[in-house]
Description:
Elements: H1 18-31, H2 35-53, H3 61-72, H4 79-86
Helix pairs in contact: 1-2
Amino acid sequence: MTVSAKRRRCALSMRLPEADVAVIDRAAARRGCSRTEFVRNAAVRAAEEVVMENALIRMTPEGFADFMKTLSKPAEPIPELVEHLSRPAPWEDGYEPKR
């Protein structure tokens, strides 16, 4: 037997200047989504960022010591990243796409 959870939807209303709505509409069109979907995604993304900025991370003293030990180690190069970053940028002379 399958049990499905009911989604609760809440209305959110706001008044915006026409210029703001026009910018939002242009951006939503470029993303291929509705104004509602675009605003919802942007608002949720901004909210998650704020929540994560203030998230408390708890760890044991031993865990913190291990974390600091790892951070203190010298960085190790990643060959693929080194190779990628050594290529000229597309707007620089000598750019040739890798095939």
